[in-house]
Design brief:
disordered N terminus; mainly beta; 329 residues; Alpha-Beta Plaits; 5-stranded antiparallel beta sheet
Length: 329
Amino acid sequence: MALGRGGGDMRLYEVRITLKSPAVITGKRTRSGFVKPLDHVPGSMLRGAIVTALYRQGAIKSFEEEARNPSILASPAYPLAGGERFLPATPFMWKCEEKGTIIDLTRHALEILEKGEINISDQCGSPPRPIYGTLIGSKTLKEFDLRSFRATSVGIDKARRAGVKGMLYDYEAIAEGTQFWAFVYGPESLDGQELEIFLGRGSSRGFGMATIRFAPFSASYQDVGPYIALSQIVPLKEITWNKCTLRVSRITGRTMELQAGWDYLKNTFRPTIQAAKRGSIVEANVEGECGALLHVGLPLRLETYGDSILATGLNALIPLKTYYDLRGG
């Protein structure tokens, strides 16, 4: 079943996720608890949820082997609302606040970069607001408005079976019924399946229950960019995984510090790394057997404290054509 293990055909799927209970998906814990929910499901979290569900079914035999040589890879999952996918805006998109319209010059990004200048002030009447990295509707180009609610829980002393004074925790959860879409690369046996998965924190309290459905996705491939970063991308000149090599010549976008997820084997956080924001323009070429792998991102081996761990959910790229195809042309 696994990549590189010679176990069956692998396919690219577009998955649809529906929350059956509120989900606590936050970037970090604050003093008051797990608040400020993310507007997406990180790819590493989605992969972990699918792997856990398949392990419970017996389809995956070993977490250790899956960590070394994954059979499942996933892009971040972004909202799906009103029949449209939400996607990250590129550095070449702005919002005219007075008119409520979006300027999108992404198709002309390379030409603009070559000239080194751009003038958009006359298209708005007032200075436009950059929306790079913001999630926008694929058809309406509206910015995504996350539905969430906040609740307070009390810590329980297991011995006394009573509340502990002063141990109050706030949770801000994404509302039940919220839907997401994502790309998943996995074995052909997933075709048409529906799994029950758990996303985020608090599954023992009933948070994060969801269903995920798998449908094959016919991707368009290209050997030379530009690509749009569907996730954060680590700014390396070369990334290789198995028989696929990505050679990056330029990334147009801002870098940020990114906590690389949770290592479920070592039960600890992965290291913090530098990565370019989602929506960045990536000029690159690919060599070897890449195919659908780019849509979910090439895994990256990180060396930390003398140990090697595998970071997933990063480096997901889609061709410029696919970006507009997902937006309806």
